[in-house]
Amino acid sequence: MAMPSSASATARMLTVPALLLLLSSAALLVFLILPSLSPSPAAHLCACSPPTTTHTTTTVTTTTTTASPAPVTTSPADVAWLKSQLASNSLPLLASHDAWHRLRKGINPRTREQQLFDINRHHGISHYPDEEATNHTALPCPGELLVEEHHSNYGEPWAGGRDVFEFLANASALTPRDQVLEIGCGTLRVSLHFIRFLEAAKFHCLERDELSLMAALRYELPAQGLLYKRPMIVRGEDMDFSRFGDTVMYDLIYASAVFLHIPDKLVWTGLERLAGKLRPQRGRIFVSHNIKFCSRLGGDECTRRLTELGLEYVGKHTHDSLLFNHYEIWWQHHTPELVQDKTAEEEEEEEAEAEGWPSPSEAEEIAAAGAGDPLERVLLLYLDGSV
């Protein structure tokens, strides 16, 4: 066999170490690169089903079930927080009318009258010149409503509606499942807050004014996103509540400054029709501003008539506003606790207790358990009415 030459041996000796070094370097490179090529934990979670461990399930359940209901009333902490925000943003209460108008410069300082003029001139907010058949507006709305002229139709500021809602909701311990009736809801200044708070179809209103109804149905409900709450708002007068159904029972009935404009006789007609629709014990009727329909009769006569209707005068309440110097006076009425007729058995029980005898039910137990007892004969005579 021919022996390898010296040059060939040298080549082998040089090649083997170089090969080992090359393999080591490649292994090290693969070790360093491999983690970056593997999927990240986030990618792993996205690509697979959610983990099903007990710990994870408990965490998810806790997160989705601990939400508390929104409070009705603003708390002192809320007011303190807002005042701090006003101060930190240098937003003091303006001292003069001129100062207010100086701030309006550059932010479209137009009156409602000017806004209405522009809307009419441009044929609506969207400026569509097309015929109605090709117009994209689902609920065409009069310009007077689009500039919210109706917010100035009812005396007190529009913001006062929130104050009225807070007072009535707290005073009646209102829950979302309760049934509410407003007599004269106008343009929904107060009602919007009730409709939003209550479950669907739980708010009823009787309103006689056409313009108010148009504002409520054509603007406020769509604008506030409350169509899904399906409030029942009925046009009518003469205190006719028949369209709301014969079986409905109300937890809260209220009239906010409405009886000022209604003859006393018609107010009493309404109370007569509503007294039987007020949920016993829990139901409340609140009337604000005016109870002259009652006081003009005299205290004793008013009390007598309320009693005949099954109503009881509870008292007068005042409610201050959060936003402006204003308060409302409310008179509260409710149905007293019902006194149920006693059954014949209950009357016998009370009579026996008063005479010192065992009641019929107690006597039966004693007779059943006391065979051979000397009192057995007396008890039996008592049971059959001989004693």
TrEMBL record:
Residues 344-354 have a biased composition (Acidic residues). It comes from the Eukaryota. It comes from Oryza nivara (Indian wild rice). Signal peptide: none annotated. SUPFAM superfamilies: S-adenosyl-L-methionine-dependent methyltransferases (SSF53335). CDD domains: AdoMet_MTases. This is Methyltransferase type 12 domain-containing protein. Residues 53-73, 341-368 are annotated as: Disordered. Residues 355-368 have a biased composition (Low complexity). The lineage of its organism: Eukaryota, Viridiplantae, Streptophyta, Embryophyta, Tracheophyta.
